[in-house]
Amino acid sequence: MKQVRVLIVDDSATMRSLIREVLLRDPAIEVAGEASGAHEARAAIKALNPDVITLDVEMPKMNGLEFLDKIMRLRPTPVIMVSSETARGAAAAIKALEIGAFDCIAKPGSGEVGAFAQILTGKVREAAIAQARFTNRETRAGQTALPVVANYCPDGRLVVIGASTGGVEAISAILSEFPENCPPTLITQHMPPVFTQSFAERLDRRCKPNVREAQDGAPLLPGWVYLAPGGTKHLTVSPTAPYRCQLRAGDPVNGHRPSVDVLMTSAAKAVSSNALGVVLTGMGRDGAEGLLAMRRAGARTLSQDEASCLIYGMPKAAFELGGAEMQVPLNRIASEILRISSIEQKETSDAFRISHARAHRR
User: Fold this and answer.
1) How big is the CA angle at 149 (ends 143 and 150), to the nearest 5 degrees?
2) pLDDT at 57
């Protein structure tokens, strides 16, 4: 198997050394070269033609975001951003993902090098798999979204969404089409702890609904979207009405905490047919079992189609297992969610809506 050739770009010699040491532990990865800044990196990319680039978010002269933008426009390559776990670093990481970075990871703290090594080598391998698909990012991002339901009126249905690599782009595209009174929506996106808060804040500024990082006990009402906090607990749906966010401790599931499977399984048990599940782009199979549980409970279920995914892993697993009733291109997912959950588009359960509203008025 051909080794994955990686270019390391970081202004810190110490960080470059650490990343090099970590990557060289994996026989499937070759460190093709290193650069301390954008000017050096530009020359190295032309000379070495790396498969994957690791890029420091904050560098002198031309920072990582400016350089990333140039890479995406001139020579699309999978780029893994390496960011500090500060609020500023997290905000920059989210912006990097929107610009086109393949993924972001946090720089390790004391005693975290082992976990950092496992995450980084895994991301490099994933990036190499997605390399050919990555060059088509502009085609995927440039797809025009279909018109959404006019005069949308939610039917009380709960929407749950799961995503991993490529999810920031996909979730942003979907929520940007949601109206102010969108269906109550819960999202589990695999992401480091500090990054989810910045992602929620950025979505809240750019989208019509209220978007927040989920808090235990937050009510699930139209016009509100909650993002699972990264890394600490699983996001679930409370088992009885009035339905609320629940954050609960537990071991990682499918290697993730929060886990899409945990969220979707809880939705299947709590609201059964009055839910809609969606699995978006990502590596692995987290969400496949949960989406199947939702479908068996009578919920509607969708997964993102292969052509519009950055990583066609989670959606493929969900569809092949039978959890997704249909696969939908990214530019159609928002309109499909709103069509399914609109009072004007189909018959709905009046009893559920009335009992749900009464429970929240108590």
Assistant:
1) 120
2) 87
Q: How far apart are CA 232 and CA 237, in angstroms?
A: 17
In three-state secondary structure terms, 178 is: coil
Residue 215, token pair as written in the block: 């808090």
Cα separation, 223 vs 213, whole angstroms? 14
pLDDT of residue 147: 72
Q: Are 291 and 281 in contact (CB under 8 A)?
A: no
Give catalytic residue positions: 164, 190, 286
Q: How confident is the prediction for the chain on average, in pLDDT?
A: 90
**Tens digits of residue pLDDT in 147-162:** 777 789 999 999 999 9
For residue 1, the Cα-to-chain-centroid distance in whole angstroms is: 29
Q: Are 218 and 212 in contact (CB under 8 A)?
A: yes
What is the amino acid identity at position 311? Answer: I
pLDDT tens column, 161-193: 999 999 999 999 999 999 999 999 999 999 988
d(Cα 320, Cα 294) in Å, to the nearest integer? 15
What pLDDT is recorded for position 1? 61
Per residue in 85-109, is it b (16+ CB within 10 Å) or e — as a string? beeebbbbbbbbbebbbbbbbbbbe
Name residues whose C-beta falls within 8 Å of residue 359's C-beta, 6 or more positions apart in sequence. 241, 242
pLDDT at residue 347 in the model: 45
**What is the SS3 string spanning 45-74?**
HHHHCCCEEEEECCCCCCCHHHHHHHHHHH
The alpha helices in 176-327, defined as continuous H runs, are 193-206, 260-271, 288-296, 314-321
Question: Is residue 90's pLDDT more than 90?
Answer: no
The SS3 assignment for 221 reads coil
User: Is the peptide bond preceding residue 147 cis, with omega within 30 degrees of 0?
Assistant: no
* pTM assigned to the model: 0.89
CB of 234 closer than 8 Å to CB of 247: yes
Q: How many Å from the N-terminal Cα to the C-terminal Cα in the chain?
A: 62
